[in-house]
Amino acid sequence: MILHASERQHPMEVLKNKLQEDISKRNLPPLLDRNFIQTEDEADRVKFRIMQWNILAQALTQGDDNFIRCPPEALKWDNRQLRVVEELVRFSPSILCLEEVDMFKFLTDTLGDAGYKGIFTPKPHSPCHKFVNNMGSDGCAVFYQTDMVELLQHDSIVLRDEDNEETNQVSILCKFRLKSNKKVFYVSVCHLKAKAGFATLRHQQGKYLLEVLKKRVGSHPVLICGDFNASPKEPVYTEFIGSDLGLTSAYSQLTPARQEPKYTTWKIRGTNDGQTTESCKTIDYIWYSTDKASITSVLDIPSPEVIGDARLPSYSYPSDHFSLVCDVVIKS
Q: Structure pTM?
């Protein structure tokens, strides 16, 4: 039987079906259930979908004190690779903004079959190299659906500190054009310095990125996605709220009080004295130019009951961070 073009499956659907076959063969449970929350009337406006996600570098799943309640089999790459790709494509985002990517070639090959192209910027000194059998340096990546958007320009940025010295954290800045209506916009992905005690450095890295963006984006709308490693109480969050770019955090629109979700990451690790430490906080964001773009819906964050007592990662979710996904309209 010969299928006509209109009857052939879209490459995205082919990939999703293949994933489900492989997941079924391994008897893996379904991914955590998630749903979109509409934030304003979608009408007939042209929109695109963007995802922000720290996917958890494979090398950083190692260590006896790391994710001690997660079954070791769930962290093995043979299983994790299926769940990572499944989460990336199950909502068919137009643009993917990713951190802790240490498997760029794998993602390029796999997502390429579904119509994506990608850009990668590694950290100058990736911690992944400290681990045996690592897959290479981790860094930030942007993937985009070529039938939805056209990449006009992209730049890699090494974030700087208060002395204007380069740090070990990076960002990517992309200039896109929607193929449907030719509107131009910018997208930046970043990953700021992790761990307690580095709030000042994160603040400086964020300020530097904002300075770069103000020089580059001009009058165009911009979306900034990233793992900021900073709660809404940190100075870098306040810096973004007060930026001349007129930025708003997409997920803060979920409540009438304009508050961020209670968490975007939730994990349990071991300590040197045999105890456990639990980290539940909001540190991931999608920022957008409020006067030049609008958010019509966002993907919810699973409840504690859905996540389970072992928290993240797990068989049902491959990272210690939740993906953030929203539908964006570029205003005239």
A: 0.96
